[in-house]
Amino acid sequence: MEPKQEHKLISRADILLIVGIMILTIAGLFVWKKLQKPGAYVDILIDGTSVKTLQLDKDASYEVMQEAGVNTVVVQDGSVTVQNADCPDKICEKHQAISQTGETIICLPHKLVVEIKE
Ligand SMILES: [Zn+2]
Fold first, then answer.
1. Neighbours of ion ligand 1 (CB under 5 A)
2. Each residue of 73-111: pLDDT tens digit?
3. Could you confirm whether domain 41-117 is CATH 1.10.238.10?
4. What Gene3D superfamilies does the database record attribute to this sequence (predicted)?
């Protein structure tokens, strides 16, 4: 083994490559952040009709009472979840918290849609 090769200096091309990758990474993160912008409020719809909106920057809970049943929409730390639902499948309750514009939690048995909007 030749020690000279191990101590080879980083070439100009290597530096350009590293800088290029860094710029691409930062640009990529920037674009990602732009696309993934946090929503401003959550719209609660029953059968396609908006019944209530809640601001995402304020912790709150709203009980959606219908003949079909109850869902409680909870806003906490900018994320929205559905709790205390009495629907048979509980899919809305099991859904992970949503916080980005366009994300939804849907409760089919109750025709309930919780959607983040900007
Ligand atoms: Zn449900």
1. 85, 87, 92, 107
2. 999 999 999 999 999 999 999 999 999 999 999 999 999
3. no
4. N-utilization substance G protein NusG, insert domain (2.60.320.10)
